[in-house]
């Protein structure tokens, strides 16, 4: 039996060596996998940081582009507003002139109507500018003001 126990103890010793050898190999394999995973994770993190940086750069570029577009639009709006205000002011002046000219035309038409309604001819002119003929200046057509602006008298 000594032989069998010696064989068994030798086999056990050999198995222990195999087990310890395979344990070392297993640990070495685990360490190698751990290092590979760590390297892979570092590479993945580096790629992720690069994508993130590229995204930030793209967003910064887009912000710059949009700011430039906003500046151009604001400049265009300001220019258009100035032109609109100038046209509006010109329209206001033209409306005032139309109003004045309409009143003037109305007054002149009343004078013509009055002159045509009298007995055939215009009334005689006043004898003197400072002493006007009462019938001439008391007529209804002279009660209408004739308005003119300084713009109408420019050459």
Automatic annotation (TrEMBL):
Xref: PROSITE patterns: BZIP, BZIP_BASIC
Annotated spans, Disordered: 1-57
Pfam families in the record: bZIP_1
Transmembrane segments: none
Biological processes, Gene Ontology terms: positive regulation of DNA-templated transcription
Domain BZIP, first and last residues per copy: 31-94
Listed InterPro entries: bZIP, bZIP_plant_GBF1, bZIP_sf
GO molecular function terms noted in the UniProt entry: DNA-binding transcription factor activity; protein heterodimerization activity; transcription cis-regulatory region binding
UniProtKB keywords: DNA-binding, Nucleus, Transcription, Transcription regulation
Places the protein is found: Nucleus
Biased segments, Low complexity type: 1-14
CDD domains assigned to the protein according to its UniProt record, in alphabetical order: bZIP_plant_GBF1
Gene Ontology CC terms, in alphabetical order: nucleus
Domain of life: Eukaryota
Name the UniProt record assigns to this protein: BZIP transcription factor 11
């Amino acid at each position: 039996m000594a032989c069998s126990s010696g064989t068994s103890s030798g086999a056990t010793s050999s198995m222990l060596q195999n087990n310890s050898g395979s344990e070392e190999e297993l640990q070495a394999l685990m360490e190698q996998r751990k290092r590979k995973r760590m390297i892979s994770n570092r590479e993945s993190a580096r790629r992720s940081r690069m994508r993130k940086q590229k995204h930030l750069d793209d967003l910064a570029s887009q912000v710059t582009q949009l700011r430039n577009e906003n500046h151009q639009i604001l400049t265009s709006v300001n220019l258009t507003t100035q032109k609109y205000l100038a046209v509006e002011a010109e329209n206001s002046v033209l409306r005032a002139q139309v109003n004045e000219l309409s009143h003037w035309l109305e007054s002149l038409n009343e004078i013509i109507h009055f002159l045509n309604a009298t007995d055939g001819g215009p009334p005689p002119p006043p004898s003197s500018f400072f002493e006007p003929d009462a019938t001439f200046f008391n007529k209804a057509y002279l009660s209408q003001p004739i308005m003119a602006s300084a713009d109408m008298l420019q050459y």
